[in-house]
Amino acid sequence: MKIKQNPISPRLRWLNKPIQANQVQSWLIDNGSLTALLQHRYKNFAVIPLAVNYAKPIQDEAVLLHQASYKTALIREVLLMGDNQSVVFAHSVLPRASLRGAWNGLGRLGNKPLGATLFANPKVKRTSLSFKKLTPNHALYKHATQHLTQKSEVKKPSYLWARRSIFSLNCANIMVTEVFLPQLLLEDAVQN
């Protein structure tokens, strides 16, 4: 009997539950729209597009989206801003096949939030959230922190918490990863 090995190395695995997430726990486990939560929290909410281009997804993203590792997908990276501060870095993987039909316009959102579009359609299904503590050697950590200002109170942390899920509509799937930035947690501490 052959044992089928998991194609994802243990280093790349994501968790079903965040472990010792402390301050960020409530943000991580909320199943609703993160966009809606941020819009409720901040009077001045904005989406700043950083990059929208075709590239190969990260290995574990391609596996979960059932996409060959050599194929490219539309990668959209944005900063979600609250009162002119970067609070969340969002990384979305939109396979070419998913950009047809109802999701034809998702590649041209510009500064519109993807979450608002996804949660507006009751036919869209979402997988369970998965979680990861991103360390400085992870590609998403590097992308998320390269836009942080170097103010004394916002230094690059030793890790960042992220969550991700796959949204489906008919046979189309896209993956959304949200990385929680230090400024969000600093403001939580100030408000409590």
What can you see in these coordinates?
The chain has 192 residues and is α+β, with helices and mostly antiparallel strands. The chain is built from 6 helices and 7 strands; from the N terminus they run ααβαββαββαββα. Strands 1, 2, 3, 4, 5, 6 and 7 form a 7-stranded antiparallel β-sheet that branches. Strand 6 and strand 7 form a beta hairpin.
Give the rounded overall mean pLDDT: 86
Shape: globular
Task: Please report the distance between the alpha carbons of the first and last residues.
Answer: 57 Å
Instruction: Return the structural class.
Output: alpha+beta
Q: Got a strand count?
A: 7
Beta-strand percent range: 25-35%
Number of contiguous helices = 6
- In angstroms, what is the radius of gyration? 17 Å
The helix content, as a percent range, equals 10-25%
| Biggest sheet architecture | 7 strands, antiparallel
Which stretches are low in confidence, meaning pLDDT under 50 for 5 or more residues running?
1-10
